[in-house]
Amino acid sequence: MTVKVSKAALNLREELADLRKPSSIAGEALLRADSVQEQRDLINAGRKNLIINGGFDVWQYGNSYTTSTTGYGQYVATDRWGAYYSGTTISKQTATINDTLKNVVRVAATGSTLYLYQVIESGSALLANKTISYSYWARANKNTTISGENIGRICGQNVSSQSSYAIPVFSGHEVSTEWRKITNTVTLTDDSVGQSFDRHFFFVINISTGVSSGDWIEIAEVQLELGSVATDFEHRSYGEELALCQRYYLNAPSPALVLNTGGVYTNFVFPTTMREAPAITVTPSSGVATIGSPSSSIHGFHATGSSTSGAAVIADAEL
Question: What is the structure's pLDDT at 44?
């Protein structure tokens, strides 16, 4: 038995005309985008870089410093970035990369290791078991390899016990005397740290092989983001980057604090909410009688004294 199936005629010309019609101007622009970055820009995807001061624009501590001890917590030059080994010099440099002048950080060693890190506050809650991508520009004074055991290593640290746990290590990257952009993507599948708001994450750049005294590496535009694609560096304004840094450290130059004669106290209000009650230093200290505890641990403090000259305020609430 023969079965005959009938179907309405199809006007191919009309169908093709419909395919050429964009759903909207914005939709057509999104479809024509050449990269993930361009798509993000078109839809205004918002903030993505989890690194603070990744462009090395803020240097409240000073433009250069050489450490004299070994250990974590040495924030000595560029904001939010720490050194670990004694004899490490961190200094501010500039370089032209892709025809654009950029601030860069130089990490120089007198020993056998180059090590720079940043702690991402409460990073465990956001990053555990997620796919992340990182990118940065790098060059060195000689051909070298960023150590595979530590490159971009993500570690969790418990605030109370200061115990650290290694999560997956990233592969090593070759670095030469010419600027090179380094990118990588990894899925954090190790549950040894887990998701917790009281655990932070470390982003580490480390060279521990073939390092001699005087060797250095320069780093620019560090970015760490969620997702499987390392997109273009997110440029934030200096004012916004400074405010993010001042959550952890504030150096307000003279005349930030002026003490009144006769022991009358004056109040100082932090320009941004600090992470916790900071350690307060006023310089010069002559004429400063007392420094009150920061109000509500984060907003400001008061001081008394007899000096009428200006003084610089340093408030430290680093991780």
Answer: 47
Comparing CA positions, the residue from 217, 275, 223, 218 lying closest to residue 244 is 275
Pick from 49-53, 64-68, 197-201, 314-318: least confident: 197-201
295 burial via Cβ count (<10 Å: 0-12, 13-18, 19+): middle
Evaluate whether 61 touches 79 at the Cβ level (below 8 Å). yes
Residue ranges per domain, the chain? 12-42, 64-240, 246-316
Pick the CATH number of 64-240 from 2.60.120.20, 2.30.29.30, 2.60.120.260, 1.10.287.690: 2.60.120.260
What is the 3 state secondary structure string of 264-288? CCEEEECCCCCCCCCEEEEECCCCE
Interacting residues of 52 by C-beta distance below 8 A, sequence separation 6+: 79, 80, 118, 241, 244, 245
Using DSSP bridges, classify how beta strands 173-175 and 64-66 pair: parallel, antiparallel or unpaired.
Answer: unpaired
Q: What angle do CA 185, 189, 192 make, to 5 degrees?
A: 130
Task: List, for residues 87-142, the tens digit of each pLDDT value.
Answer: 999 999 999 999 999 999 999 999 899 999 998 988 877 887 888 999 999 999 99
